[in-house]
Amino acid sequence: MKIAVVCANGKAGSLIVKEAVERGMDVTAVVRGENKTIAPHAIQKDLFDLTVADLAKFDAVVDAFGAWTPETLPQHSTSLAHLCDILSGADIRLLVVGGAGSLYVNPEHTAQVMDGADFPEEFKPLASAQGKALDELRKRTDVKWTFISPAADFQAEGERTGAYILGGEELTLNERGESVISYADYAIAMVDEIESGDHIQQRISVVRK
């Protein structure tokens, strides 16, 4: 498979590249500067400058974009909209590295993780921005998208266990009552979904087994 990982130099993006390369995929890193990943190919462009021609040859595109400052948080929506517009009507799948704040905590889907009293105040703007981007993505019936939320405790330096539980729209806990996953295990789940294509136009979630 030919895949592109947008914002590949980031922590999540670089591990997704590594996982995909080690499974024999033909991986292209989309980066603004020097390619710091192990991807054999690179497109050096800002995400917002990407065109239909840039992404036309891929089977799947991974969006690993992240923004954290008040000025850039709206780019979660605008960057995703740009990628959707590029891939509109194409047979190319779009897989999005999402957040956990928008996962539901009740069967009625009226309460989200970010609504909880114990949710850190400093992370609410990010969770809201990612949730808004997901809400807008749900309206795109012209794109073969999959939005993958990590567990609530998303550990950049966590170990690669090789085992995870696949969840859906609701916050899923493992048998120890934890909602945790490492970036490395998340990368496994992402590449598994690239290979299977089982959840088109769905949000799924992953937690360490």
UniProtKB/TrEMBL annotation:
Pfam families recorded: NAD_binding_10
Domain of life of the source: Bacteria
A GO term for molecular function: oxidoreductase activity, acting on the CH-NH group of donors, NAD or NADP as acceptor
Annotated InterPro entries: NAD(P)-bd_dom (IPR016040), NAD(P)-bd_dom_sf (IPR036291), Polyketide_Oxido-like (IPR051606)
NAD(P)-binding domain sequence ranges: 8-192
PANTHER family found in the cross-reference section: FLAVIN REDUCTASE (NADPH)
Designated name of the protein: NADH-flavin reductase
Origin species: Slackia equolifaciens
